[in-house]
Design goal:
Distance between the termini: 44 Å
CATH class of one domain: Alpha Beta
Strand order of the largest sheet: 1-2-3-4-6-9
Shape: globular
Number of strands: 9
CATH superfamily of one domain: 2-enoyl-CoA Hydratase, Chain A, domain 1
Strand content: 5-15%
Number of helices: 10
Largest sheet: 6 strands, mixed
CATH architecture of one domain: Alpha-Beta Complex
Radius of gyration: 18 Å
Amino acid sequence: MSELVRVARQDDPAFWRVTFGAARGNVIDRATMTALGRVFAEAQSTPALKAICLEGAGDDFSFGASVQEHLFDQAAAMLAEFRQLILSMLESRVVLVAAVRGRCLGGGLELASVCHRIVASSTSTFGQPEIALGVFAPIASVVLPERIGRARAEELCLTGRTVSAAEAREMGLVDQTATGDPAEDALAWARASLGHLSASSLRFAVQAIRAPFVERIRTQLPELEALYMTELMATRDANEGLQAFLEKRRPRWSDR
């Protein structure tokens, strides 16, 4: 598809292996979001497709969304693009399996959490560190409570702490710990669990089981984006936290 996103169609046309990222950490910028969105739009119009395995290139899944694009002059466009990508994933109506190696942080964890299943290497780590930068994660605020329950989602989003693969498995964030390459294990699971099913019927089942979730994404995310842009980004600390990260220094909070 592009240098940012590669699609490997398996011998069985029912399964794709989609790899994103072109630099260390696979930062999810708007260009990557657009490229991924095209893949899921194509998936929606590929009737024989049953599942997509989504992975980051190299040693990590993703360090998260671009911090530069979180700054006030770019944030609104970035948030809208990310929301559209999430909706494209959901509207593809195929089973999504995230294969996680290394770090899966911020926007990377939001991307993985939208998937039906997360298969991770034993050395991978997970976190929503946005609060350490003085901001919050709109998508995680909707998606994580759905996936791991409100209490655990609140802890990750409000403390910004990173958890190991073992702890992520215990809290229900990770579904399977890989014995080797998590992408190969993810595809093996998809073939064994979905290979004998009707692709057409599976799409209707995906649509049905996720209908309430998709509705929450459609209605709640724009509200959280408005909170982010009109109130959070009007504070000194949100801008200070982002700028401090880009300048590689500790933030100087004013609590306002």
